[in-house]
Design a protein that fits this description.
- It is a single chain.
- With 192 residues, the chain is mainly α.
- Helices cover 80% and strands 0% of the residues.
- The chain has 7 helices and no strands.
């Protein structure tokens, strides 16, 4: 895909998310492309989050390993994969159909767009903090609306309420699974 096609896909994603989801699902992307894109987006997001920690430290204290870009990379990549599979499973349980690969490609695309938005918000934070806060809220809610439409389209769900139920069920499943995993490996004792 050339840059003009990527810009067109970004515009379609912002204006008509269901059409963008269909376009992403129709792309002949191999597994290598999807997984390499996932790794790249996770790495860039980890670097941006690390830069944000340096520029504006979080209000609450985080464990020291969250300061490491490598840990953030592993966490972001793992959560993307885990959440996509949870979306797929919960979607099928609620009557949806669809493969996990186009959903993973769509989530990677949305994370790439979110990375661009976060970079813009970071620049706004340096220049106009109140505007950056407003922009952050807009990006969060618009991104959620886009994700709902992507999930509804790619899992062939009847509507956005079904997609919201899938998102909530997948988030709950991921949280419970991570809580169990963290307790099994002993990270809860460290304050995670």
């Amino acid at each position: 895909m050339d840059s003009a096609a990527l810009i067109q896909l970004a515009q379609t994603t912002l204006r008509s998310p269901r059409a963008a989801a269909r376009m992403i699902a129709a792309l002949p992307l191999g597994r290598e492309v999807i997984w390499t894109s996932l790794a790249l987006v996770a790495a860039l997001n980890a670097l941006l989050i690390s830069a944000m920690f340096v520029i504006a430290p979080p209000a609450m204290a985080l464990p020291s390993y969250f300061q490491s870009p490598l840990v953030l990379f592993a966490l972001l990549a793992g959560l993307m994969v885990l959440y996509v599979h949870a979306l797929s499973w919960v979607g099928r349980a609620l009557g949806g159909q669809g493969a996990a690969a186009p959903l993973l490609a769509a989530v990677v695309w949305l994370q790439a767009l979110r990375l661009c938005a976060q970079l813009g918000i970071l620049l706004l934070t340096l220049a106009l903090p109140p505007v950056a806060l407003l922009a952050s809220f807009v990006v969060t809610f618009w991104g959620l609306w886009i994700l709902l439409n992507f999930v509804a389209e790619l899992l062939h769900l009847p509507g956005l309420f079904h997609a919201a139920a899938v998102l909530a069920g997948a988030a709950l499943g991921v949280l419970l699974g991570l809580g169990l995993l963290l307790s099994l490996i002993g990270l809860t004792a460290q304050g995670v």
